[in-house]
């Protein structure tokens, strides 16, 4: 018996339509927030450049080396901030699209991980802005040779800070990634723990690439990565033990149900046999 191609095509088309709807909603949300931020784009960049301007010597300032930079860069920042603000809504749209295809236990697992990943990303960006960047700029400007005026291009500054933001934001996702690797069975907490020396080396290697060329930011980034890795490892062990206890409890409950059902069947069989015996007499 052959299946109807049109019936198979309908679910695929409906999924594409839903995907398009989710994407359109996401784009509209970003555009609405971007439009709302447009009137304060200049003030937004002023606030965003605070960590560097606070460390500049008296009379120092940021500069624009391209003709259109003073106009384009603030709006570019406003667009990035709009995406940053709407991340929860964007992830909600992605979740609404994929959740119907998940099992109940997968939904229970995915939703807390989704919420925690957003919170951790925001926390990583906050750490980068309020702790890392002021220290980095203070360190770099302090080592400027005598007679050299520190004047940074506004476009270069934006690219640099966004790189640091996303580096720390992604680094703070390590606990979520660690938990997912363990719960999906790709690895185990013991397996990850045995690879700790390689993870330490990898953390410092990545820190040397994505962070500014100063000792503090590199050590701080690597330290954050290692602490978050250990936090993810601890959480994974706890969740794995909890899952094992649930499985043992479920198996015990199933065995108890089977035993009760067997006893009930025996009681019925004994009662039937007794009734037959009485009717024979």
Describe this structure as you would to a colleague.
The chain has 281 residues and is an all-alpha fold. It folds into 2 domains: 10-145, no CATH class; 173-281. 81% of the residues lie in helices and 0% in strands. The protein is built from 11 helices and no strands. It has helices at residues 5-37, 41-48, 50-53, 69-85, 87-98, 104-142, 154-171, 174-183, 189-194, 196-210, 215-280. Helix 1 (5-37) packs antiparallel against helix 5 and helix 8 runs parallel beside helix 11 (215-280). The longest helix is centred in the C-terminal third of the chain and has 66 residues, at 215-280. The N and C termini lie far apart (59 Å). 18% of the residues are buried.
Number of domains: 2
Estimate percent helicity.
over 70%
Content of β-strand: under 5%
Distance between the amino and carboxyl termini: 59 Å
Number of continuous helical runs: 11
Mean of residue pLDDT values: 81
Order of helices and strands: HHHHHHHHHHH
Q: Keywords, please?
A:
single chain, 281 residues, mainly alpha, 2 domains, 81% helix, 0% strand, elongated
Note the topology.
Elements: H1 5-37, H2 41-48, H3 50-53, H4 69-85, H5 87-98, H6 104-142, H7 154-171, H8 174-183, H9 189-194, H10 196-210, H11 215-280
Helix pairs in contact: 1-4, 1-5, 2-4, 5-6, 6-7, 8-11, 10-11
